[in-house]
Amino acid sequence: MLVSSSGLSKVKNSVREKIFFGNEPTTELLAILTVYFVQGILGLARLAVSFFLKDELGLTPAQVSALLGIVVLPWIIKPLFGLISDGLPVFGYRRRPYLVLSGILGAISWVSLATIVHTPIAATMAIALGSLSVAVSDVIVDS
């Protein structure tokens, strides 16, 4: 064996202490960690989106600002998402289906932005859908 079992247990304990703050890694904890990791990564992607809007679609900085102003609307109505997930359970669950659906919608929005978006309207819709997906997942994980 290349690695001793005591070495593996040291690594496991170190990961538990540093990443999970001493908690046992449960599926809920992994979901929370994943959502916030994705939110951080999307911060980097927003820089690329800004260049895409300016360089590929030819939008002016004022138009980009207006578009990004529209895109933050899902974050303004976040309390509504909490009310919907609490009041409308899907298949008996209040959180999981909404988290899965928001992940699917986010993936669709980013794939479409990378492949089929060629107009400012389509870009606005794709970016807004991605923003909606992150806002919904943020509400679900926080509740």
Keywords:
143 residues, mainly alpha, 7 helices, 0% strand, globular
**What is the CA-atom radius of gyration, in angstroms?**
19 Å
- Structural class by secondary-structure content: mainly alpha
Structurally, how many domains make up the residues? 1
Query: What is the arithmetic mean of pLDDT?
Result: 89
Helix content range: over 70%
What is the distance, rounded to the nearest whole angstrom, between the alpha carbons of the first and last residues?
A: 44 Å
Number of helices: 7
User: Approximately how much beta-strand content do the residues carry?
Assistant: under 5%
The major beta sheet can be summarized as: none
Choose one word for the global shape: globular
Helix and strand string, N-terminal first?
Answer: HHHHHHH
Which helices and strands appear, and what pairs or packs with what?
Layout: H1 5-18, H2 27-56, H3 61-71, H4 73-76, H5 78-87, H6 96-115, H7 120-142
Task: Describe the model.
- The structure is a single chain.
- With 143 residues, the protein is mainly α.
- It has one domain.
- The protein contains 7 helices and no strands.
- It has helices spanning 5-18, 27-56, 61-71, 73-76, 78-87, 96-115, 120-142.
- Helix 3 (61-71) runs parallel beside helix 7 (120-142), helix 5 crosses helix 7 (120-142) and helix 6 packs antiparallel against helix 7 (120-142).
- The longest helix has 30 residues, at 27-56.
- It is globular and about 60 Å long.
- The N and C termini lie far apart (44 Å).
- The model has no long low-confidence stretch (mean pLDDT 89).
